[in-house]
Amino acid sequence: MAAQSISEGEVAFDAPGAGKPCKTWYKIIGSLDSEAIPLIALHGGPGGGHEYLTPLVDLYEKHGIPIIFYDQIGCARSTHLQEKKGDDSFWTFDLFVKELDNLVDHLKLREKGFYVLGQSWGGMLGSTYAFRQPRGLKKLILVSSPASIPLYMENCKILLAGLPRDIRDTLEECDRLGDHESERFQEAAFVFNKKHVCRIDPMPEPVVAAFQHLKEDPTSYVTMQGPSEFIIEGTAFKGWEGFKQGHKIQAPTLLINGGHDEVGDVCFEPWFWTIPNVRWVTLQGASHMSHWEERDRFIQLCGTFLKGFK
After folding, report:
1. pTM over cut 0.85
2. How far is CA 200 from the centre of its chain?
3. 166, exposed or middle or buried, with CB in 10 Å at 0-12, 13-18, 19+?
């Protein structure tokens, strides 16, 4: 087991159109001075923060892979921009790609190289980053990340139909009324989350922290996605079909989703058919948080892929 060393820092980020200085907060588990290639973890949301990805620390402890966590702009310890709520021209994929590139350059990873793991929205970001074939990207892991938002919405319809009738009625009524902020809607949506987002009861504290980040500052989430996991209204997400550019991903890629995942096979499989060098594993006992629900198997899959698969 590798001895754990932790360092934290901030990097200035010139966010286009922000109108103020911005910064990205990051944390490194392990040393970037070692010969080991580090993994950059891209959290979901948008706006979920890095904490819920903490099981990735096991990749350092068991496989010696340094881990770079960071809070994306708009959440947690990085710069917040609540004044940009509803600004579709600001909250774009390009904004987050630029932020990731800025972090890579700040940490001087181009020559050594780096891995990227993106979970949920983080995988949408990671795939978009990989489409551009950035110098230094060695391998890519996409975890529970939709290949197509239209297909994701189709899958959500199937999952919602499997909820108890009273829950469905509440969600449908609230949606019809545009009532997505009430306690009634939130409680009904939580039933969906417990089945298809995280099946551990009670939810691990770091997962709760992600929901708390979204509650405290929903700016990027609401603007890019919409009011909930299954209502997509944001310009950035609506109509997005990343798999159509999957052929541009040159890095070897591992796909992982869960058998009960809100990102089910319907909207995940297109990655498998379009990314040239790819393998795909579904963890049947898991939902959207397979890194928690099937932690040992998840870490074993990622570690083997990063250390061995060419």
Report:
1. yes
2. 19
3. exposed
Question: Which domains, from first to last, does the chain contain?
Answer: 6-152+234-307 (3.40.50.1820)
- Which string of DSSP letters, residue by residue, matches 133-190? --TTEEEEEEES--S-HHHHHHHHHHHHHTS-HHHHHHHHHHHHHT--SSHHHHHHHH
User: Looking at this protein, which amino acid is placed at residue 137?
Assistant: L
How many helical (H) and strand (E) elements, i.e. helices and strands, does the chain have? 11, 8
Contacts of 236 (CB under 8 A, 6+ apart): 88, 91, 92, 93, 223, 224, 225
Residue that is written with structure tokens 């990097």 in the block: 11
Other C-beta atoms closer than 10 Å to the C-beta of 248 total: 15
The 3-state DSSP class for residue 280 equals strand
| pLDDT per position as a tens digit, 59-115 | 999 999 999 999 999 999 999 999 999 999 999 999 999 999 999 999 999 999 999
* 1 pLDDT tier (thresholds 50, 70, 90): very low
Catalytic residues: 120, 261, 288
